[in-house]
Amino acid sequence: MKILKRILLLLFIVFVGIQFIPTKMNVSNEVYKADFMNIYSMPKTISEKLVVSCYDCHSNNTKYPWYNKIQPVAWYLEDHIKEGKKELNFNEFGNYSVRRQKSKIKSIIREIEGDKMPLSSYTNMHEDAILNADERKELLGFFEMLKDSV
Amino acid sequence: MKKSTLILGIAIMSIAGFTVQSCGNQEGKNVESAAGHDNSDGHHDSDKNHGQSSDSHSNVAKTGKDELIKDYLELKNALTKDDEKKASKIAGKMVETIQGFDSAPYTESQQSEIKDILETSLEHSEHIAKSPIAHQREHFKDLSVDMIDLISITGNSTMLYQQYCPMYDNKKGASWLSADSNIENPYYGSKMLSCGKVEKEYK
Fold first, then answer.
1. Do B119 and A110 touch (CB under 8 A)?
2. Chain A contacts of B120, Cβ < 8 Å?
3. Measuring CA to CA, which of A4, A99, B2, B139 is 20 to 30 A from B168?
C-alpha cells in the first residue's frame, strides 16, 4: 500500500510538472483580410456552421474548452491543429492561388460528401459541430456553386 | 479517503495521457522507419541515386516535364493494377521531381502558371504518398487535371492520350493521361479496367 501511494504521488508530481511545459496555443486577435468569409459572400447559416464545425482546426483561432488546456491533451491537439492548418487555413484562403482555391473547394466537397469531416474524434467532444443532413446539403450546394465561380 | 480518490483519479489521467503520447510517438517512428526502408530499396538501383538522395533539399536534382510525366504515368500504371504500395512509393518520388522542376526555360507568364500547377500537384502527390488507395485515386483525379494543364503549357515529348471515365466520382467523371491508346482505367483498376474512352491526343 505504501508503495502504491508513492507511485501515485510520483505520477501526480509528473502530471503537475508537465502542465508547466509551454504549448503554443492557436489563438489570434488579428483580422484576416484574406479570410474565406471576407472574400466570398454567403448566408449567415453557412458562415456560422463553418466557424463551429471547421474553424477550430482550419483557422488561426481555436476555441479551447477547459480540458484542452491541460497537458498532455494540449500537445495532442497542437499536432492536430498544425496539420489541419497546413491542409486548409480559412483565414489565409484569399492568399491561395485560384488553382489552389479550386482544389481546396473540391476537397471540401469530397470530405463533406464522404462524411469524413469534421473528424469523428472531434465531433465526439463537440456535438454542435456535427453536420446534419440539411446542413450538409446546404454546404454542398454552396461549395458546388462556389467551385464554378472561383 | 476523498483525497486519495482524487490523487488516484489524477494519476489515472496522467497515465492515460502518457499512453496517448507514446502511441503517437510510436506511429511517427513507424512512418520514419518505413520511409527509411523505401529509401534503402531505392538505393539498390544504382550508386548514383544514393549520392543524390543523401543531398539536402536545397540541392535537389533539376527535373523537367519529361521526368514529371514519366513519374505520373508510372503512378497511373500502379493504380490500374490496384497497387497501393507502389503508387505511394512513386508519388513520393514524384514529390522530389516536382520540387526539382526547372521552369527557367519558360516565359514569365508561363512560369507563374507552372508555379501554381506545381503547387497543387505537390499537395496531391504528398497525399497519394501517404493514403489508402481510395483516397489516392481521389487525388489522382486532381493531379491528372494538373498534368493535362501542364503539358498544354510545356508541350510533351512523347505521344500522350487523354482518356476519360464518365462514371468515377459520383458520375462527375474523371480524365487521365496515358502513353497507350488502349484503355486501362486507373480509377477502378481491375474492377472496371476497360471503362473509358480516348478524349484527346497530344502528339
1. no
2. 97, 99-100, 103
3. A99
Q: What distance in Å separates residue B173's CA from the closest CA in chain A? A: 14
Cell of B168: 468515377
Are residue B75 and residue B158 in the same domain, yes or no? Answer: yes
Query: Are B10 and A15 inside 8 Å of each other by CB?
Result: yes
Specify the length of chain B in residues. Answer: 203
Interface contact A73, partner B, CB < 8 A? yes
* pLDDT given at position B1: 44
Report the residue from B20, B123, B170 with minimal CB separation from A72. Answer: B20
A9 contact residues in B (CB cutoff 8 A): 7
Residue at B46 is within a domain:
no
ipTM of model:
0.75
Residues B33 and B131 in one domain: no
Domain that holds residue B27: 2-41
How near does any CA of chain A get to the CA of B119, in Å? 8
Would you say residue B50 lies in a domain? no
Q: For residue A110, what are the CA distances in angstroms to A21, B142, B178?
A: 38, 12, 25
CA distance A34 to A36: 6
- pTM comes to 0.73
Residues B120, B150, single domain; the answer is yes
Q: Is A59 helix (H, G, I), strand (E, B) or coil?
A: coil
Q: Which residue of B has its CA nearest to A1?
A: B4
In a domain, B101, yes or no: yes
User: Could you say which of A11, A99, A103 has the minimum Cβ distance to residue B14?
Assistant: A11
B69 and B26 share one domain: no
pLDDT digits (tens, 9 = 90+) for A102-142: 999 999 999 999 889 999 888 888 888 999 999 999 999 99
Looking at the domain assignment, is residue B84 inside a domain? yes
> CA separation (Å) from A31 to A91, A104, A139, B21?
9, 22, 24, 34
**Closest of B140, B193, B195 to residue B164, by C-alpha:** B195
pLDDT in tens, chain B (203 residues): 445 554 445 444 544 444 444 433 433 333 333 333 444 333 443 333 443 443 444 556 788 888 999 999 999 999 999 999 999 999 999 999 999 998 888 898 999 999 999 999 999 999 999 999 999 999 999 999 999 999 999 988 899 999 999 999 888 899 999 999 899 999 999 888 988 889 888 98
Whether residue B34 sits in one domain with residue B124 = no
